[in-house]
Specification:
Largest sheet: 4 strands, mixed
Mean pLDDT: 93
Distance between the termini: 48 Å
Low-confidence stretches: 9-14
Strand content: 5-15%
Amino acid sequence: MVDGRQLRRQVNSAKKPPILYGDEVSPPVRFVMMTAAHLNIQLDFHPIDLFKSEHKMDAFNQINPLQKVPVLKVDKDVICDSHAIAMYLCETTKSEDLYPGSALARAKINQMLFYNATTLFPIDSFILSEYFCGKMPSGVKVDEWFNSLHYLNTALSVSPWLAGDQMRICDFCCASTISSMETVVNGIKKFVYLKRWMDELEKLPCFEINRRGLERLKYFMSLYKPN
């Protein structure tokens, strides 16, 4: 098991920045990149072209047998989940802006990270996978998506950010997934608080990473558009 403190020392003392393997078309990759950019953490980005199936090639399979991105490599250690990577990056800095030390604050942030992992992203992945197979999203999945957005909109009706009064990593996380789904199912405009939240995030300099990844996604969607 990788010790967090040991990894932190490695990052701080390493001559080279950690390597991030990924494709900006991927919401989890953009989430990690926005987190790093906001924290001013330098990463050595190694592109893995998902549309060329580079994530399934032997070279990458040796790095991550799960054949998924993102992957963060710190010396010989590898972290293969975007949520874990983002939390780790926060732990390597003195700033607590995105992931404070308070147990309760972290529980609220983790709650939204897990919501993305168990609800938002699985729907996103299913609908976009169907799209690239030539199928438009079904009514059932679209309804599930709107229901998931309704939950977030309710949370944002009582606080400006998903985990309270300040922006946290869970905001980057959920925004990257939701913005990807907006390319297929335009749902944000139906939710006042969710739209306001996204508008605030789009003002951030690091959100340029998200826009860039979405443009790449839209390009491939134009090539695979269902008849």
